[in-house]
Fold this protein.
Amino acid sequence: MIEPETDEDLFIRIHSGDEQAFVSLYRKRQSAIFRFALHMSGSEAVAEDVTQDVFLALIRECGYDPRRGTLSGYLYGIARKLVLRYLERGRTDPLLQSDLDDAELPEVATTHDPLAEMTHREGIEALRRSVMALPRRYREVVVLCDLEEVEYAEAAQVLGCPIGTVRSRLHRARGLLLEKLNQERQKQNAISMLKPARCVI
């Protein structure tokens, strides 16, 4: 049985001029980088630009050093810097609703129950709003560790901080996220109570 190529194997082939290796790595890592940029910026347009720029940087620069961490961590690190640059320039408006509406949502089980599907969708949107409302340093760890399921060591590499800092930030971030989700729930409950009751004849 042939072992699948690692990211690092593909990287070596890319820098020896193998175009197919680039295509393979892009297909393997593109969606995760896009999701990270989307959750960090709140904008699909920014996420697309960042994803493209990450892979262009990978071709142009040979800054990756396997001794310093994984290639995926390196790609997340480039994406993080690019997102921060966009945010600092004010080129993105967090919570661009059209972007969030168009973004890919997790699959909803086929229940043929429109109310259940709407409730699920509203839950996902509430989570997105709550994540976007977190301060950046907490949003980063939630997106990396909880949403993208990156290991703590790799998250530490991306953020340029010790693993202990990742753990403590994540603990604080989860507490803040829970508070924000509870606020969202209370807000939705208040809105539903204000809606006029339907008369059933």
User: Anything to note?
Assistant: The first helix runs from residue 7 to 14. The chain has nine helices and no strands. The CA atoms of residues 14 and 22 lie 6 Å apart.
